[in-house]
User: Fold this.
Amino acid sequence: MGEALLSKDAVFESLAQNVAIQALRAAHPDDVTNAKFDRGELSLVIAANAIRAVCRTLQRAGYNFLEDVTCVDWYPAEPRFQVTYHILSHKLKERVRLEVMVESIDPSVDSITPVWPSANYYEREVWDLFGVRFHGHPGLRRIMMPDDWEGHPLRKDYPVEGYR
Amino acid sequence: MPTRDNFGGPDNPNMPEMPQFTATSTLVQPRPEEGAKDRTMVLNMGPQHPSTHGVLRIVLEIDGETVVKLVPDIGYLHTGIEKTCEAKFYQQVVPMTDRVDYLSPLSNNLCYCLAVEKLLQLEIPDRAQWIRVLLNELTRLNSHLVWLGTHAMDIGALTVFLYTFREREEILRIFEHVSGQRMMTSYFRVGGLALEPPLDFFDSVQALVKILPEKIDEYENLLTGNPIFINRLKGVGYLSPEDAISLGVTGPPLRASGVDWDLRRDMPYSSYDKFRFNVPVSTDGDVWARYVLRLQEMRESVKICQQALDGMPEGDIKANAPHVVLPDREKMKTQMEALIYHFKIVTEGFQVPAGEVYQTIESARGEMGYYVVSDGTAKPWRVHMRYPSFATLQALEKMCVGRLIADVVAVIGSIDIILGEVDR
Assistant:
């Protein structure tokens, strides 16, 4: 797996042949704010307002399959939420991970359902369990918890046994 | 006291007021179309319904018997496993994963263990990897046998269920023999296996692998030429490859739609690259294609099991990492160092270097993925489980709209849904 590359410059230099990096370098040079290549996996931190455009660029570059959208709560750090996208290319047999950091006050990010309709359920799950809103989502309702549930259970300040 | 005569009568003062049920729902509102008033109606299916394979609730809008709209309503089995995992040590998460996809416990174990091993950058001995492959293919056979029995039963062919569960019982017996448990096996550990398999384990697997091909022929005799079965399945629930990809479908439904993608072959893990097997693909994209494809997959799984038995390497079953892997019982009793490691791992867990990994395997239903984030402590900061049924459920509406209600049952059977992994 080799050494971990932990900065944007190092990743862009060492993985210059990577299709995702080439495509993003050409179309969105400033929207990739950080990058990491660790344990054989490529992670790119994307500016929050650019995620939909970046996904569209990657889709055109051959990364055709959205595997997953999820979130990590870094409470009490700020920005608190890390929305994570795993995108796969069937042709290249490669995967790229996109991360968007979201502040804790009114956490929200653009929905990528216009690019991949499969993001629908994943984003509903993130809204339900973390309380991160997705702009432009066709029906952002709770999916796991009951509709009248209060709170978002996977947040770190939500107790494991729930409120009693 | 209410007697038989007055019980339930409208004038009975002891009778509690009955709630009024109406055929509407917040999810789907009936919409009269083209002047015809009340043309469509809303039908609720599940969560207690034998052919939804668990607690799936579907709200159908129907025009006569034709489905106009379909909205799945899930979450009835949500147990918050991901949240619970964050409060456990890494090794304590393994038994939690069994309960997610309860028909393929060993696949869950494998995917989680591979993810943590990737975080720790552990080298797993060949023998452990091969036994993992062997048990995973048995798990796939187990899951497909349950699918075949229940799917055929949904269609109305009750007999097949008894045949498939006969062979499934043999597989469960092997699981019990090797791990002590029939279903919630928890046999894989971070760093290898829990125990060396018992002496006659390989013989019993060999005996099973030998009879399975003819048993699969037997199921095919019951179903493949059956005209009722063919009529109920052929041309039903079509899904185009473009829709399959854009809706996140993986596994047999994706391959039945003509996309040649199998993680065992294309992104090999746990030494799958050392096995030779075919990946069946069909371009028909209907329920029948998924049926044929899964039966072919079962035959391929039998082949992989045979290869694993023939080429099983000798050696250790645990990685050489004393700070992660529990020492042998014998060493623990005789060596001070082993005892200390044992005590530390059990009481404090083992620390995993900070980082994040996403590990995928091809489960019986498609792409199973574990996204594990570590902050450097002994408990995972976040464990996210990506399960195939959850994504495939989004394609259900696409496959069912314009078809009859009876076809919905066939389509649900064909995507082999497990509500444990949908709701987690």
About this structure: Strands of chain A lie at 32-38, 41-46, 65-73, 81-89, 94-102, 108-110, 133-135.
